[in-house]
Amino acid sequence: MLDDSQLMTDASMNPGAWRLTRPLFCTIACTMNALTLAAQDDATLKFVDEYQKAYAEGRDLIPAPQKNLDVSSIAEALDLRTVTPEGALSGSAFLASDGTIVKLAGTQGCLSTEEVEVAGLQTTCAMASLAGLTATLSEAGAAAGNAFPCHFLGQNAGTPTVRFAECFFVKDGEAQSLSEVLIARGLAFAARDSAGRAIFPEYSEAEEGAQRARAGIWANAQFAHPFGERYRGNRSSN
């Protein structure tokens, strides 16, 4: 398992280092199609398929936190636990091997079914986010035997259990945040509180970098940020 200092050395990633290439996007699209077909014969894959189909239609089946999350614990009491992903459920959540849902607290996937062009392909914003998390989970797991560490911030009661976390992996000797990678690639947004402020300010910076670089979804000039005027009004305060 990674130690705390190794994971926190790169608090602000370089957005320019993360770009979703056309070959990678095509590979992920094919993988997702195969997953859908296989779901007919396997209970786990059926579960994943149900959530993916709903998300592709613009419906996120994963509930919000039932109580406020203690995001300060990442800096004050980092507690990493190894997680093995089974498959992406949305643009910012995945099913873990223990049967729980892990929702990345710092990022929000795109739920819009608006058509966009990503890596030269016509798709929808929701599918771009879903494919992006699928690719990034594979990348993160490849570094350590299909597993990576997460710091959990809280969970919802009920079935299935939904746990809220920030997850990390090491690439080229540097710690990477799964959430920040997705945001910097232009495939998800910085999660925000009810006032429109980014839960993690550095993720807002990564998002603005992706916009400037026209990465991922931001390559579409007509695409509007899902937080709209609230986002723009709080941009300077993040």
Question: Can you describe this structure?
Answer:
The chain is 35% helix and 22% strand. The longest helix has 18 residues, at 125-142. The chain starts with a helix and ends with a helix. A hairpin with a 4-residue loop joins strand 2 (85-88) and strand 3 (93-96). The protein is built from eight helices and eleven strands. It has 238 residues and is α+β, with helices and mostly antiparallel strands. It has helices at 4-7, 22-38, 43-56, 73-76, 125-142, 178-184, 201-213, 228-234, and strands at 80-83, 85-88, 93-96, 101-104, 107-109, 115-118, 121-124, 148-156, 162-171, 174-177, 188-190. The strands form three sheets. Strands 1, 2, 3, 4, 8, 9 and 10 form a seven-stranded mixed sheet that branches. It has a two-stranded antiparallel sheet with strand order 5-11. A two-stranded antiparallel sheet has the order 6-7. The model is unreliable at 1-24, 31-40 and 229-238 (pLDDT under 50).
Number of strands: 11
Distance between the termini: 32 Å
Give the overall pLDDT as a whole number.
81
Q: Which regions contain 5 or more consecutive residues with pLDDT less than 50?
A: 1-24, 31-40, 229-238
Order of helices and strands: HHHHEEEEEEEHEEEHEHH
Share of β-strand residues: 15-25%
Tally of contiguous helical segments: 8
